[in-house]
Amino acid sequence: MSIGTQALQVTGKHIWIWCAALFCALLSWAETTQAEYSSFDAGAILEEDIYRYPLKGDWMFAWDRFLTPEEAVTAFKEQSLPSKAVPSNWFGTVPSAEDNPHDHGIASYVAPLTLPEIPNSDLVLHVGEIHDAYRLIWVPLDAPEDAVEIATRGNLAGPELVAHRNLRHSLPFSGDGLLLVHVRKSMFDWGGITLAPYVATADKEGFAFYVKSMIGGITIGALLLIMLRNGMLYLSGLRDVAAGVLAMITMMIIVRAVAVENMVEMLFGTQWHATRMRIEVGLVAVMSSWTFRMLEVLFPRPMPQIVRLPIHIGAHLIGLATLLVPLHNVSDMLILAQIIALISFIPGGVHIVSALRTHSNEARLLAISAALCLAAGLNDIYASNSDNYNVHLIPVSVVVLVMFLSQVIGNRAALAIARSDLLEQEKEQLERAHDDAVHMARHDHLTGLLNRQSFDHYWAQSWLDSIENQTPLTVVLFDIDHFKSINDNHGHPIGDAVLKSLAERLTSCNLRKSDRLCRYGGEEFALILPNSTQRDGEAMAERLRKAIAANPLHASDPEITVTCSFGVASTDLCNEKSAEGLLTRADEALYAAKANGRNCVFSPRGASQKAAA
Q: Based on CB atoms within 10 Å of each CB, which residue in 44, 288, 302, 502 is the most buried?
């Protein structure tokens, strides 16, 4: 064997020896640390900058039994119990059994605690969260037989009844002792002291509770107003989808805030604890889906359905499953809800970044509010791990975020309303232009009366109505006598003025709404009289003739007096089979009136009036 080989063997033996020694040292260190417990001196709250003393550290822990005060004191003196960190969840860290996969059972927590004497004030123990039921016992270290039960919440045996969260219990004790906590877990995977309790003075804790309650009330009130505002925006004529989505998100935030703050159990009893926990966990997934949906609406960007649909469907399935699975699986659903929330953040962030690249003001506001929420989250993490700083900003940051989003949607709504008003104005202008065009197409531009095109339309319609309803129909044709001489002697402008003035006088003769007065052509006019007999038509024509001839027209200086000749034809006198035939008979009557001296009314049966002077 060579010298090098011998050296390698010796070196290998030394390595194995050192590894064995290190392993033994680790085992001994583990055994010694197992028996090392945290000691708590609540006298720190006498310092001005500390008003809460958290009992956070390694407590003595006894699984599957409730220690008596005497057993707790003995175990503390002998350092015979293992330790468990507080706060922590005991699921997966206690001796498990095949018939108890979720580690349901009972346990005892013990912590050495020194309570100071504080004049004019009482100490309180704030219990944040212990799953599921608990009993608090103060054990004087030197007299365990004088142990005092501080409080019991929930059922430690028998039917499942959980404890309220965030409760304060009086600590009218002082000196050295042990805080003994009996815990029963029987519902969820969460078990034990999952939120570290703390000691505080009653006056400072009362003020802190008042401030927290006031902030909570203001937060819920602000969220309610935002929900109502956006709900009304969605239900209004705007139908802004983003407003509806934000209203839903705000409602879910309110529901979850009520659930987290223990209000459900306080209002309806702890038997609603399981339902409240299901709602609290399920809303995590559903809110992530709706938040992603809102980003899609606010910042539209093409996104493949293979990305969108799994997020929305998966989130709602997780939320639904949370309401249906056994209680001990709710904690598993929380992990899935957190995963789907994290996944939805990725495409949501793509929407925000895409909007920022287009210099969108809405995206800037959302980015600022998201940054504030992130800063608030970091602040709350620090506050939860600090003994002298307890300002939590997550509720405020959530309200700020929702307010920013509501402002963005409000700006969208204002822009949509302005755009709608502009479109409405343009619509009114188009309608006016259309009405003007229709009026110009149907009326004579000089006299304002219906033109020949309108006469043809109304005459055909009146003829059909007369046949269908079997009612008489009369037409009156008339023109101005010697109108050509007016144009020749006074000029065409005066002739136009005569036509215009005559039209004004004719329209002032109280015609029926159903009557149609038209300019038939040149100086000739036509009057359609539905549901009128020959006699009615002749009477109307005579009334118009007198009104025209009675006074001169205000067309020139000196004023001009004109007369008109009238021809009247009616279906009750003329046995005509067509509208054109009846119109021809009226035209013949008009020419007969002109041949008979003008300024008179004629019908097919002869003159009804003698010529006037």
A: 288
